[in-house]
Each structure stands twice: as C-alpha cells, then as structure tokens.
Amino acid sequence: MTRATPAEDACTNALPTAALGGPVSHAVSRVARLHRIAAGKVLKGVDLYPGQELLMMHLWDRGAVRQTELIRALELDPSTVTKMLQRLEQTGHVRRRPDPADRRAVLVEATDESCALHTAVENAWGSLEEHTLAGLDPAERTELVRLLAKVEENLCRETEDCPDRRGAASG
Amino acid sequence: MTRATPAEDACTNALPTAALGGPVSHAVSRVARLHRIAAGKVLKGVDLYPGQELLMMHLWDRGAVRQTELIRALELDPSTVTKMLQRLEQTGHVRRRPDPADRRAVLVEATDESCALHTAVENAWGSLEEHTLAGLDPAERTELVRLLAKVEENLCRETEDCPDRRGAASG
DNA sequence: ACCCATTCATTGGCCGACCAAGGTAAAGTT
DNA sequence: AACTTTACCTTGGTCGGCCAATGAATGGGT
C-alpha cells in the first residue's frame, strides 16, 4: 500500500501498466487532455475552440500574414490550418484574401470584430494559466517550464517536426 | 539577444503572445502534440493509433471488462470509447460480446492475436518514455512527475472530470 | 525559352475527443 | 405492479490533428 500518485488511486487504486511503464508519458496525456478541456471552458465565452485561440493570437500580434507563416508559427500541418481558417472565416473571426505579390499564397488577417475578443482571450489564457499552476510556488513554476522545455527539445529532435533547429540549446 | 527558450527562438525568435501570457499552457500544448506524434511513430509498428494503446493495455491487464470500466479507467467520453472499440474490433484487436448478467452492458476483451502485441507495446512505451526524458537526471524526472501530478490535480479539480476524488493527495 | 523542382494551399480520408440526444434495460419509489 | 430515475451504450455531429495526394504558381537550371 504505497498510496502512490493520487490520481490513479482515486479510480481503482491499481496502477495501470501504462503508468508503470511510462509515468511521464501517461501524465503528459492526461494533463494535456484536462488542460484542453479547461481551455475549452474558458474559451466558450469568446466563441472559440481550443486551438483556435493560438491562431488568433498570432494574427492579433502580426496582422496580415500568409498561411505559411501560421503553419510555421503554430507548427501545425498545413491541412489543419486550412481547415481551421475555413471555420474561423465562417464564424467571422478571420478574413482571407489573395496575396497580390504571390498568386498562390493567401493573406490572412483578424477581422475587426475579432479584435474585440483580443483582451478577453488574453484574460482567459491568464486565468487558465493561473488555474493550471495553482499551488505551485514561483520556483516550482520556473522548474516546470524548464523541464517541459527540455522534454519538448527531446521530442522535437527525433520527431524532426521543428524545421529550423539551429543548436541554440543550453542550460 | 537574450536567446530565451530554444524552441521559439528557432522559429521566429519573437515569442508569441501566447507564450508570454501562459508559458506553461503553451508548453503543455506543444509537448502534448509532439508526444502524440512520437507515440504515433512508435506505435505504427504494432498497428495501433495513439490512444488505442492505453485501452489495450487496460484490457491486457484486466481481461474481459465492461465498457464502463474502460470509460472510468481511461477517463474518456463514452462515445469516444464506443468508437475506438468499433475500430479496434474491426482491426481484430478486440472482441465484444453481450454481458449475460446485464443485458444493456457489453463485455470487451483483447483477442489472442492482440496479446502478441502486448510486449511490443510495452517496449514501445518504454522507449517513448526514455526518448521523452532523455537528458533528464533521476531527480529531474521525479520532480517533473511530481509537478505534473500537481498540475493534473489542479485541472482535475475544477474540471470535475475525475469522478471519485477522495483527498489522497500528499507529497 | 523550356523544363523540373519547390513552395503554397486545398481536398479527402482517417483517428481521437467532445457534446447532445436517443434507446434499452436495470434499479429504486410509490 | 406501475412509474420514475438511473445506468449502459450507440448514433450523429463538430473540432483539432495527421497523412497522402493534388492543383496552381513561382523559381532555378540548362
């Protein structure tokens, strides 16, 4: 009866093999899922689905950009971005127009109405962050960020999904 | 030139607002996504999609169970599990039969062929975990697990998605 | 000028995951 | 026994994500 991690204990008090064989992997999945749900709730008030807010934030930051830049910034699949934009366009958050300088490219920008959400979204993210980190003191927060960055580095490396990795890693 | 976190620096060397307003939230999304991709690659060899392996592991652990137990153990939406099982059934990893003791319930179990994958999947998870944690010393790993558990607790609490939360939390 | 490789974006198909709504069967109430 | 609530699962729809394949325009090489 080691009463190990609280989360598993709550359910069946028998740790799934998954948790034994890969505690961090397991934790990452679970945290990500819960975080996504929490984000969904917070974003419901601003008529956005989780994931879309990052795209909008980038637009609010940088104005009219072409899709490629969004793909690179968000590190998503092109098709994902296309579909997100189609939906965001339909909900009126985004406008697309052909790039006059390059006839195969498309320029994307946030609509004026969407800019009204800007503050709300940032507040939402702020409270989400605070909620996520409740009970962690500053040192713990810093450490968590540092460790997550390291993990991201690891996953990024072999995944080879980060296109432009010049060895800037250091402690 | 502060050369802050390596990951952002690689892309545009301008931190998105999202990273400023919620560094951990941002990191969690990114790590989760990369982790999922990595899992997908590792699982490709065993004919499973990321997410399915957890379900299978539970089945291998516990034998024939009813769907409700899977839902509780994996903490997923019922409909999600239903659809996963339909696909797993079609690919021959899983078998379903009505529960004789309860005519609305269904018993699920892993097929014999799927059991051949058992070891492969655990190895896959092991290597995924190792890949994720490469370069972190034991103390860092422990700390990461601890912090993630704390975050999970936080997110779990308000999300109220963990059904059976008796306060078993402690260091 | 021509051809070929690259880049930009889209489509279609798939999976995990959610919610909402529905149908059936088992428990609980009166 | 009849009624109501609860539990179990399914269906249909939506979104974020991926991959593979496609079409259109740009750009480099010869």
UniProtKB/TrEMBL annotation, chains A, B:
**Gene3D superfamilies for the chain:** Winged helix-like DNA-binding domain superfamily/Winged helix DNA-binding domain
Q: Which residues form a coiled coil?
A: none
SUPFAM superfamilies registered for this protein in UniProt: Winged helix' DNA-binding domain
Q: Which residues form the HTH marR-type domain?
A: 1-153
Per the UniProt record, which residue ranges are transmembrane?
A: none
List keywords of the entry alphabetically. Answer: DNA-binding, Transcription, Transcription regulation
- The entry's protein name is Transcriptional regulator, MarR family
Q: What is the lineage of its organism?
A: Bacteria, Bacillati, Actinomycetota, Actinomycetes, Kitasatosporales
